[in-house]
Amino acid sequence: EEGGSGPSSMEEDGSGAGNTVVPVRVVEDDVLTRVIDFMKHHHNNPMAEIEKPIPSDRMEHIAQDPFDREFVDVSQETLFNLISAANFLDIPALLDLACAKVATMLKGKTPEQVKEAFNIEGDFTPEEESKVNAENPWLEEL
Questions:
Q1: What is the pLDDT, as a whole number, of residue 4?
Q2: Alpha-carbon torsion 74, 118, 141, 98, what sign?
C-alpha cells in the first residue's frame, strides 16, 4: 500500500512529541511478549556473539547465557515465529540466537532426517532426486 498504512510502515503518533508508532500486527502477542522479555534481559547485558559456523549441535556450547538457551528451547512454531519477529523488528542478536537454535537442529542430520524433523515433503520424484545427486556429488558432503 502507498501512503504508509501497511503493516511495516511507521508514522508519527500525533502527540507532537516526536514519538513514532511502529505497527507490529505481523507479530503475534505471545511472540511479542517473548521478544520484549529478551530485550529487557539484554538491555544492559548485551548478548555474547554467536560463533559462526556453529561449533556444535548443543546450545550450551553456543549460547553462554542460560537465559538465551532457555529462551529458544521452544516449539518449532514458536522458534520460527521468533525468527520472523526478530527479522521484522530488526533485532540481530535475537535473529542470530534463534537461527543458531535451528542450525543445531540441522547439524549432523541427513537430508531425510531434516525433512522428517521439519515436516518437509520432497519436491522431486525418486528419479529426479537420483539425477540431481548424480550431477552434484558434493551434496552428499553436506
A1: 38
A2: negative
**What digits encode the pLDDT tens for the residues 14-46?**
666 667 776 656 788 899 999 999 999 999 999
pLDDT band at 118 (very low <50, low <70, confident <90, very high): confident
CA dihedral sign of residues 100, 101, 107, 111? negative
- Grid coordinates standing for 41? 534481559
90 vs 1: CA distance, rounded Å: 21
CA–CA dist 80, 119 (Å, integer): 14
Q: Quick one: residue 46, left, alpha or beta (phi over 0 = left, psi -120 to 50 = alpha)? A: beta
Per cent of the chain over pLDDT 90 is 51
The C-alpha cell at 33 is 511478549
Cell of 107: 547439524
Q: Which residues pair with 78 in a beta bridge?
A: none
CB neighbour class for 28 (10 Å; exposed up to 12, middle 13-18, buried from 19): middle
DSSP three-state, residue 62: coil
